[in-house]
Fold this sequence. Notes:
The structure holds 2 protein chains of 2 kinds.
Chain A: E1 7-11, H1 15-28, E2 34-39, H2 56-63, H3 67-73, E3 77-79, E4 81-85, E5 93-97, H4 110-119, H5 131-137, E6 158-160, H6 163-176, E7 180-183, E8 186-191, E9 197-202, E10 207-209, E11 212-215, H7 222-227, E12 232-234, E13 243-249, E14 259-264, E15 267-273, E16 278-284, H8 291-300, E17 311-314, E18 318-320, E19 324-325, E20 328-330, E21 336-337, H9 345-358, H10 367-393, H11 401-408, H12 413-425, H13 438-447, H14 464-484, H15 488-495
Parallel strand pairs in A: 1-2, 1-11, 2-7, 4-14, 11-20
Antiparallel strand pairs in A: 3-6, 4-5, 8-9, 9-10, 12-18, 13-16, 13-17, 14-15, 15-16, 18-21, 19-20
Helix pairs in contact in A: 1-6, 1-9, 9-10
Chain B: E1 5-9, H1 11-25, E2 32-36, E3 46-49, H2 51-60, H3 64-70, E4 74-76, E5 78-83, E6 86-91, H4 104-114, H5 125-131, H6 143-148, E7 152-156, H7 157-171, E8 174-177, E9 181-185, E10 191-196, E11 201-203, E12 206-209, E13 220-230, E14 240-244, E15 249-255, E16 258-265, H8 272-283, E17 289-296, E18 302-303, E19 306-307, H9 309-314, H10 323-337, H11 345-370, H12 376-384, H13 397-406, H14 423-442, H15 447-459
Parallel strand pairs in B: 1-2, 1-12, 2-8, 5-14, 12-19
Antiparallel strand pairs in B: 3-7, 4-7, 5-6, 9-10, 10-11, 13-16, 13-17, 14-15, 15-16, 18-19
Helix pairs in contact in B: 1-7, 1-10, 3-15, 4-14, 10-11
Amino acid sequence: MIEKIRKIIVLGGGSAGWMTAAALGKVLKNQYCQIQVIESEQIGTVGVGEATIPQIMLYNELIGLDENDFMRRTQATFKLGIQFVDWQKQGSSYFHAFGDVGKNMEGLQFYHYWLRMRALGKAAPLDEYTLSSLACLEQRFMRSMDAGNSPLSNIAYAFHFDAGLFAQYLRELAEQWGVQRTEGEVVEVRQLDNGFIRSLRLADGTEHEADFFIDCSGFRGLLIEQTLKTGYEDWSHWLPCDRAIAVPSATTSEPWPFTRATAQRAGWQWRIPLQHRVGNGHVYCSRFMSEDEATAILLKNLDGEALAEPRPIRFVTGKRKQFWNKNCLAVGLAGGFMEPLESTSLHLVQATISKLFSFFPDRNFAQSDIDEFNRQMHFDYDKIRDFLILHYHATERNDSEFWNYCRTMPVPDELSQKIQQFKANGRIFRFNNEMFSDLSWFEVMLGQGITPQGYHPMADLFPEAELAKRLEGIRSVVRKSVDYMPSHQSFIDQNCKAGKIY
Amino acid sequence: MQQPLVFIGHGLWLQMATAIVAKHLQPFGYPCIAIELPAKAKEPAAMAGGPELVTLCQMLGLPLQLVLARAQATFSLGSQYQSGDSSWFVPFGHYGLNAAAAEFEQAILQLLRLDANSKAEQFCIAALAASQGKFALAPANRPDLAEALSYGLHLQTAEFAACLKHYNQQLGVTFLSSQTVEMKYSAEGQISTLQLDNGTALPVGYCLDCRTEPAADEASHTVQLFCAQDTTVLLQQPHSSVLQTSWGWLVRLPLQQGSHWFSQCTDPTLELSHFRQELQQLTGLSEWQHSTRQQPTESQPWQLNHLRFGQAAATLDCPLYNGLNALQYLLIRWLDLLPNQSYCPATALMYNQHWQQFQSEVQDFLWLHQHPLATKTGQAFARLGRVLSTETDAIKAGQWFGLMQGLGLKPELRSMLLAHRTDTEIHQGLRQVQQQIARLVTAMPSQIDTLNRCLQQLSH
Ligand SMILES: Cc1cc2nc3c(=O)[nH]c(=O)nc-3n(C[C@H](O)[C@H](O)[C@H](O)COP(=O)(O)OP(=O)(O)OC[C@H]3O[C@@H](n4cnc5c(N)ncnc54)[C@H](O)[C@@H]3O)c2cc1C
């Protein structure tokens, strides 16, 4: 017998809480069941998490977001990729750009042809065949247009936005769709005899019952961990950074259409350009660096003046042993955390929401559904983890203890197999549902200095002169396409300029 | 000069493996040598290949018309299942007009729940066309229809093998035959040479082993096979037929001049007379051939330079799933990886892991036929009406959905993503799609017409 869920409580009003509540509100329209968000302004949110990846579009579509309105309201800019500076070695730099690299020919990925010509010393840098990279370098942007075979028909992009404004924007939408908001701090969690959560009691004495609880309470995992003792799988031996310092700074130039991640002595620094400011942060490992030193490095490397006091954040990289336990689902930081090197956290929030709709429970909470849900979530987390470890491990840096540790640490078997395989022959093995495509793996492995000894033999099928001509053709099409694109700033000015805040 | 690629085995599998690899690697100077060994068991007279087979013929440059003519082939849009009074279709293509349409299958399930007279087949171009004996090759400018009308082929095995052998000979493959083959290994455990019965010792770069039989010390189980042939021509059926029996399933493959029946049983306790009686009742045929074979149960296909693809594919081979599809997957995947001969253990390891995933997805699909609710896939469908995401393309999305809804799994829960639509809205949306599908199918030619046109093109 189906026992319909009557009420869902989302605990937490950070990005995860409001993304979940808005999606539930939009889809269920408050007709199916009641949806309540409980958040505490006093506790506040983590307040970072401002760079995304193109999969965010799926979420935006789900809730029917008007993109220009959303950009104006969140002071957003566009993002075409990430620039990694000093990762392979000091002075090195590469782009992990969204979208296509070159053009596949005869069913074979472009990069095999490029590898062949590179081995002959006859290929231009990869960026010159990649629309997004070149557009990043020249700070240009536009949305896809109908242009036949041109790379302009297929521009993959994401956003940088102000996390606080994003949560506020989603809150307004969610409330319009019938989600109820309650301000207050949860001080007690009441459980049924079978361990399921029954209700949350707030500091003002009110008690709130529900059938299903979504824990978006951030790192503390008030329901999933503090109450249900689900357990946490610690990955700090692979992803050793455990602290961040975040600080906004004044804008000094037109916003770049990319995030920059600059490797530092014991971690790395992010730079996320928004319309009204730049978001900065230094992610580091406390075993190898003190907070004072990390703060000094961050402040020294700001482009403009700091607009607030630097804010320290602590974390442990890893994931919950179960994301869904009994009648509680952990979303966002409550479910796990991997550092924002590839801007994957908000994507994981969205992936969790999308799976929730596929596995939407009734009050029986079938364990088989929950098990499958957890299996899929573990798959997502584990694959992303390996991709992030790659950035640290595949490096030539030997200028600090931190990098010596990362370079020599044992990594998960699957990752070391992927690396060996790429080294041997330039091939990339992946399963259908892995989030990062073979192109992403290619760009990062190459950027980190892993040089494949071979390439696909089919790349030899074109005579060298013919291939050189084709590569040149692709390069010139990319060049012309980028020339056609307006500057990032003027695209924003024309389409989604936000009002002044600072 | 590259190291030679030596293929061993017999029949269609040997020819297929040789054709795929030789076509791709001969241009790089790899000598290809095929050693034909005697068959331990007779190959089935007919086979059904999925859409992969059609893609493969295109890749090889083998004209479809030629295959149709030589191998008495017919088209297959999927399988028509019959179990007691209920019947359903399992298509290769997708349901609806657009493969990516969100929650379309969920909408169908919602309709089926409310309206006992509706059938999922009304919303599937392939199923509707199959039921009306229609078949068309999608025009080049309609990739959407090509997907919805994904098709495979029913073929005469020996004739198709002969066609491929001719192809291989033209490619310059050297054919040798031997009663036995003995492998000699290097100190590192690689096969260094293959010794034939006439004393020839062939040096080996890679040995592509298409033999299906497990060695005596390897895990296997005994299966009993039944097959029969009848002369009824079923050109109005562009599909395979699958009937439920008391021990499993009976499959009928229609060719241009008659059809072939196959069934398999793994239960050693059942009496032969029992099989024969039931088979006769179901088909009216009394001439059933019976044989037994040892089916391997597991394998690590890539072991140094020994590629045991035949045995790996044979773990899945049965009337409901032709092992040739798996063999193709193994070969294409291997070709995609074949390094410039730099040997990398990680490659073989990852390859075998991917193979295990493929194998487990096919096994899951087969297991669903016997015990739908004993599989995770079946359980998830029965709760949520969803097909669990798969990591390989072994079984198409339409096949999973078609089979599970056909087996009578009815989801307990409704799609939340459709929660804000009323039943009337869902019905109206579905009816529109149904009408468009019906119109498309009305305009399609019959399989007979399509077949005749293709065969005429060849004679011109
Ligand atoms: C340094 C850093 C940088 C990051 N950068 C990126 C990035 O670039 N891209 C990206 O995708 N992600 C990034 N992330 C991750 C991203 O910030 C988070 O995934 C996202 O903000 C979601 O956070 P959250 O909502 O889970 O938690 P929080 O923002 O911490 O929200 C927790 C909520 O729970 C409430 N709460 C907690 N306890 C109680 C209680 N007892 N009673 C009532 N309410 C309570 C709080 O008030 C708050 O509303 C980054 C994270 C960190 C730490």
